[in-house]
Amino acid sequence: EIGYGAFAFCEQLDTVVFNEKASIGDYAFYKSFGKDVTEGENPITYKSEVVMKKDGNIGEYAFAESNIKSIKADEFTNIISEGAFMFTTSLVDASFAKATEVGRSAFANSPKHESALTSINIQSVTHIANGAFRMNTNLSTVNANSLVSIGDYAFANCKLLSTINLSTVNE
After folding, report:
1. Of 118, 156, 106, which Cα lies nearest the Cα of 135?
2. How many alpha carbons fall within 13 Å on the CB side of residue 81?
3. What pLDDT does 26 receive?
4. Which of 24, 36, 95, 132 has the most CB atoms around its CB within 10 Å?
5. CA 46 to the chain's CA centroid
6. What is the pTM of this model?
7. Alpha helices by DSSP H, 4-106
8. What is the tens place of the pLDDT at every residue in 38-86?
9. SS3 letters for 91-111?
10. What pLDDT shows up at residue 55?
11. Which residues in 8-28 are b (16+ Cβ under 10 Å) and which e?
């Protein structure tokens, strides 16, 4: 288990790999991961990625306001908790092929925090909570083939959203 705020504000963090089942506590990686530096004589580019190879839990706001660019958690079968990736403006690639639920404001952004996320794989998710992807202005594709319900404002202001399968929604 990774405790509350365990790696919060670790701004040089680059890659985290979970080979075993992991429980990631609330705020565990809050405002963490390196931010690319493109100016000056020594530019720095970070991978800023998380790989979860087994099932686990992602706590509330676990990666909120971090500089994470990629998360691959295709064996993850639980809920993506409230605010888990809120205001993660660097997140480009996210895959949760077996997750079952996306919590409230899990990937939400604001006009002040423009998202880089263009697509997400949540093909087994059945429930998307209120505001889960709100203000993801660059999100264009959602791979979600199992949806049963979508909460209020779940995709509000996702101005580029062009592809999502709603054929299974019944609530």
Report:
1. 156
2. 16
3. 94
4. 132
5. 18
6. 0.89
7. none
8. 677 776 777 888 888 777 888 999 999 999 999 998 887 788 999 999 9
9. CCEEECCCCCEECCCCCCCEC
10. 79
11. bebeebeebebeeebebbbbb
Tokens matching residue 59: 């706590």
DSSP annotation of 71 reads: E
CA neighbours within 13 Å on the CB side: how many for 126?
Answer: 6
**pLDDT of 6 higher than 60:** yes
| Interstrand relation of 15-18 and 49-52 (parallel, antiparallel or unpaired) | parallel
Tokens of 156: 């509000």
Give residue for tokens 């979508």.
150
Query: Residue 16 CA to chain centroid, in angstroms?
Result: 15
Q: What percent of the chain has pLDDT over 70?
A: 96
68's tokens: 């994470």
Q: Which of 29, 120, 115, 109 is nearest to 74 (CA)?
A: 120
DSSP one-letter code for 47: -
Closest by CA to 132, choosing from 112, 114, 154, 116, is: 154
